[in-house]
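Ticket #4471: structure output looks truncated?

Reporter: J.K.
Steps to reproduce: submitted the chain below (169 residues) through the standard prediction queue, then opened the result file.
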Amino acid sequence: KILLSVKNYVPALNTIIDVGANSGQFAIAASKIYSSVNIYSFEALPSLLRTLENNTKQIKNIKIFNYALGDIKGDIEFFQNDYSLASSALEIHKNQTDLFPQTGGVKKIKIKSERLDDIINEMKLDSPVLLKLDVQGYEKKVLSGAVQSMKKIDYLLFETSFTPMYNAE
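Returned output as attached by the reporter:
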């Protein structure tokens, strides 16, 4: 639904950087709305990689990266949630578990993290470029690692919550 609204304001996109790809929901919709777009999907959870690959195998112009983007290069602690959409590099806030009890099951794991500034040259960015962030409260960290990259980004798309859902640092 959100991409149909985006299409009204941004009729053409050539590149999408999909950070927080989960099982490919956004990439699939984007490939239907912007049929010739190149998509770079980032998903931190190793347990979702196979699902993401299977769900997006019909997309011809997609490249998948199985690591997080943030403000550091190296291993980080990550909170893998039983409800994968709530997984985050930030610890879940009590508000979230109160409002959505299914988000209560969490396991700490270590994952690889990169900075967009360090890897952006691995991508062929044809303007206009959309950076989509769905990283459960970690948006500021991703943007902190993308200072130079922002010169190549035309549009930003991310969800916002006005109630704390994750414990920020």
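Triage note (M.O.): checked the attachment and the full token line is present. Helices lie at 2-9, 25-33, 49-55, 94-99, 116-119, 139-144.
Status: closed, working as intended.
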